[in-house]
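S.,

As promised, the S-adenosylmethionine run. Input:
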Amino acid sequence: MQALEKAPIRHDWTEEEVRELFQMPFMDLMFKAQTVHRQYHKPNQVQVSTLCSIKTGACPEDCKYCPQSARYNTDLETERLMKVKAVLKEAAEAKAKGATRFCMGAAWKSPRAKDMPYVLEMIRGVKEMGMEACMTLGTLESGQAQELADAGLDYYNHNLDTSPEFYGNIITTRTYQDRLDTLSNVREAGMKVCCGGIMGMGENERDRIGLLMTLANMADHPESVPMNMLVKVEGTPLENVDDLEPFDFIRTIAIARIMMPASAVRLSAGRTNMNEQMQAMCFMAGANSIFYGEKLLTTENPEADADMMLFRKLSINSEQNEDVSDEAHEQAILHNIQAEQDSKLFTDAAAS
Ligand code: SAM
Ligand code: DTB
Ligand code: SF4
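Predicted complex:
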């Protein structure tokens, strides 16, 4: 049998080509994305990361989607930088539940010099546990990026969020170029790049094309590409923006997979508003990473047990760390099946 030829890794995508992908019949696009996915990734494996908000709210930036900006009234309780010990306790719990990567996020424009020793200690602690470490702390100068890399940070998350053209409608306190500069500082320091965007902010297809082209035409593709569906938070300027057509979100995932074949594509924020079937379609389109655990940074994420159940229904294996006991997983699944049956009994009884 002839070996399957891999799609090439390209950095020269044209707008016309990407538009053609967006215009493909949905089934053809899904087939193409799944074909590329299988050339580069295990088809039934999804990586799980857990998020921890190490500093919450009171952010000076004005990102219109974000509940953590100090400019909007969102009922969010602000929290100063967490103690290193508390962060490492959460990391240990995440590891016990099966996470292979621990991602720490701070609502900062940029980390301050006095915060750096604590942040570096957090990285060292997570690495000692045998997990990958990721951080998202805002803009980084090259020296700061080097300090993080030297402490062992594997990934730095910094999103472009949208196209260069639409960006000014969403954020005015830092420029697109500032973001690109941070990304190149991260690269030069030798860390892996986690960079993606948010769909459903009122952008149009051209903007989704613009975002994907900026990502895929970088000299090196981001190793991880988070695709967030906007979580509309009351009090933010985007709270009432129109919903994105779910198929357009799935299409965007499929095209990200085709344009960046070797990258992990993460189905990130917004999963609580997606049913199991939609999430399965996102996996089919090439998403192979999720955030696992009840909370993202400040908003809800699906219950861990529900995710475990979904993985089981789809025979998806999470890329697990060795220390997680199968028994603990089995118990959690059984617990969830029981809860699902109980709630069915309840609704059946109520209907009769
Ligand atoms: N303050 C840092 C920064 O912005 O670089 C790090 C934390 S920030 C919350 C990380 C990312 O979360 C943002 O770039 C954005 O893509 C995503 N995000 C924030 N609020 C969101 C929302 N309401 N819905 C979807 N994604 C969101
Ligand atoms: C990313 O692209 N999505 C994550 C992670 N990077 C840090 C954050 C999503 C945040 C959703 C809104 C919240 O929970 O505050
Ligand atoms: Fe601040 Fe990050 Fe939220 Fe923007 S996305 S307001 S920088 S926490």
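Residues 321-334, 345-352 have pLDDT under 50 and may be disordered. The chain is about 45% helix and 15% strand.

- D.
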